[in-house]
Amino acid sequence: MKIDLQTIAIQPSGVTPLYQQENHTVYWVGVTEESAFRCNVYLIGDGEEWILVDPGSRAHFPQVKESISTIVSPEKITGAIICHQDPDVAASLIDWLAINPAMKVYTTPRTNVLLPYYDIEYEYVDVEENSIITLPSGAELQFIAAPFLHFPGAFTTYDRATQALFSGDIWAALDSDWSLVVTDMEAHRDSMDLFHMDYMASNTACRGFVRQLDGIEIDAILPQHGSIIASNFVKEGLDYLENVRCGTDLIYPEFS
Ligand SMILES: [Fe+2]
Ligand SMILES: [Fe+2]
Predict the structure, then answer these.
(1) What is the CATH number of the domain that holds 66?
(2) Distance from the CA of 85 to the center of ligand 2, in angstroms?
(3) Does the N-terminal peptide bond of residue 127 adopt cis geometry, omega within 30 degrees of 0?
(4) CB count, 10 Å around CB of 116?
(5) pLDDT digit string (tens) for 156-177?
(6) Are 75 and 100 in contact (CB under 8 A)?
(7) Measured in angstroms, how far is the CA atom of residue 166 from the centroid of ligand 1?
(8) CA of residue 150 to ligand 1 center, whole Å
(9) Domain with 193 in it
């Protein structure tokens, strides 16, 4: 069933399906915190595999766990994709691994060096540049490096089945008056500026990443903060990232 992302609203349970294909579903599973930094957590369900994308902080673990409990028992979560080690992305690994110590952690070597400082042990799956994993339905997840956006070892995850791009902090937006999906791209550019100008390394890093997406068909951009960018604004989103001036462009303008 094709869900119209452009008109979607959060369901009362907190679990909102974004894509539903046979044996392959992508859910938004929170959170609804009222701060401009609000985080998105996504869940991919595929056969026996239940993979969290950027599971989030410990502060919001109870809410996310409760939401997920409405569709699957939390101990059935089999993996977590961790786009970088920040606590708003990764700290709840402590709690998820306590529930299922066999849960796999998909991440880059640079992130894998830092995650053990949460005092956790886990089965590590190295998401080398452009590596692909195949899920039980045959759906493939492709990992695309995003160096210095904002962490040196950051990466994004492209779901080839749905053409959704889980973008981590890239295309993140700060907005206290948020909606699940972007409705006003002009206003959203300002909200993305608030994040990118301070957190993203430089236009070179942004432009280089956009270049890597050449030839990849993107249906929607699912960031870790702020609203989802549905298909009607994907092109504008790519243009935004290609042209944004941020980080060292602004701090050292004499060199850029
Ligand atoms: Fe971050
Ligand atoms: Fe973040």
Answers:
(1) 3.60.15.10
(2) 9
(3) no
(4) 12
(5) 999 999 999 999 999 999 998 8
(6) yes
(7) 14
(8) 6
(9) 5-255
CA 210: distance to chain centroid? Answer: 16
172 alpha carbon to ligand 1 midpoint, in Å?
10
Measured distance CA(52)–CA(66) in Å, rounded: 14
pTM score of the predicted model: 0.97
Mean pLDDT, contiguous 10-residue spans, the chain (256 residues): 87 92 95 89 98 97 96 97 98 98 98 98 93 97 98 98 98 92 96 98 98 97 97 98 98 93
Alpha carbon distance 11, 221 (integer Å) = 20
Do 22 and 137 contact (CB within 8 A), yes or no? Answer: yes
Q: Rounded to whole angstroms, how far apart are CA atoms 224 and 56?
A: 9
What DSSP state is assigned to residue 225?
B
Q: Which ligand has its closest atom nearest to the C-alpha of 88? A: 2
What proportion of the chain, given as a percentage, has pLDDT over 90? 90
Count the domains in the chain. Answer: 1
